[in-house]
Amino acid sequence: MTWDRFGYICRQAGNDSSGASLAARLEQAQSEQACSLYGPAPKADSWPAQLLTRLAAIPDPDNAERALNTYQQLNLGRQLEAPVKFKRALAYLAYVTFVFYMVAGIYQFKITPTFSDLLNNLEMAPPAYLALYQTYWSLFILAISLLILLALLSALQMRRLFQFKVNAHDSLACRLLVLPSCRRAYRQMADALQYPTLDRHALSEQSPVLRHLQQVEERGMDLAIEIQALTEVQMQGFLQACEKQLKALTTLVAVVVIVAVMMFLTSAYAPIFSLGEAI
């Protein structure tokens, strides 16, 4: 929604024929109540807000108008939104976490003490599975907790990228928790989005996207069309990389939880079988 608002502000500023400076027109467009119809105001550290700030700060009026004209032609609202399947994966991880701790808590604090007391009253040795679980349950829970925490933190970090915070891909947490392919696609998408506001004489030589867009301008091609195409392509690559990592994480968590449930059931039924043999 913030990208829809960004697009409206650019279109409104471009349509303003008052003769005021671009900075004044952008400020006027942002102050209009109609902006709220296009979504909430972007946070100061997000790319939509930063691009508006950079647009207003371009010293050369002609360059500023060209950059504004480019942004007016872009349609970023739908392409740069987090997909529903990503939100579902995040909800799934949260749900699995809740269910796991609920089952583990009930088993540890309700079921296990009951069986232990019953076996002690019957002067029976606890079954091997139950004894093993009682001995190592804390380490077992800790290991699974760390795995689920890793999956949740990775998903939340990817969610931060979908919020398009400036330099989010360079944070330590992102470098540790998000695959390089995700970060690379995000960085290239950000390079394409910010290109109209950059000084052409100070472009990073390490960015293939910036070099390509500079060549596009030099050849007289339509910059808006190429930025639109690049953002769509890089967004698809970003989504695919994120989905690949999320699929691996959710699969791993699901397998571990299934194994945990099997161990719970095995250790839970072991005392029942022992009691049956005793009777």
Explain what you see:
The chain is mostly helical. The chain contains 10 helices and no strands. The chain has helices at 2-15, 22-31, 47-57, 61-73, 84-121, 128-162, 172-177, 180-194, 208-218, 223-278. The chain starts with a helix and ends with a helix. The model has no long low-confidence stretch (mean pLDDT 81).
Name its key features.
single chain, 279 residues, mainly alpha, 2 domains, 0% strand, elongated
Short structural summary:
The chain crosses the membrane at residues 89-109, 136-156, 248-270. With 279 residues, this protein is mainly α.
Query: How far is the first residue's CA from the last residue's CA?
Result: 67 Å
Largest sheet geometry: none
Give the total of beta strands. 0
Bin the strand percentage: under 5%
Class derived from helix and strand content: mainly alpha
Q: How big is the Rg?
A: 28 Å
Relative helix content? over 70%
Count of helical regions: 10
Q: How many separate domains?
A: 2
Low-confidence segments, ≥5 residues, pLDDT <50? none
Instruction: Give the overall silhouette.
Output: elongated
Mean pLDDT: 81
Question: Could you give the order of the helices and strands?
Answer: HHHHHHHHHH
Keywords: Membrane, Transmembrane, Transmembrane helix
Protein name: Type II secretory pathway component PulF
Write the layout of secondary structure elements.
Layout: H1 2-15, H2 22-31, H3 47-57, H4 61-73, H5 84-121, H6 128-162, H7 172-177, H8 180-194, H9 208-218, H10 223-278
Helix pairs in contact: 1-2, 1-4, 2-3, 5-6, 5-10, 6-10, 8-9, 8-10, 9-10
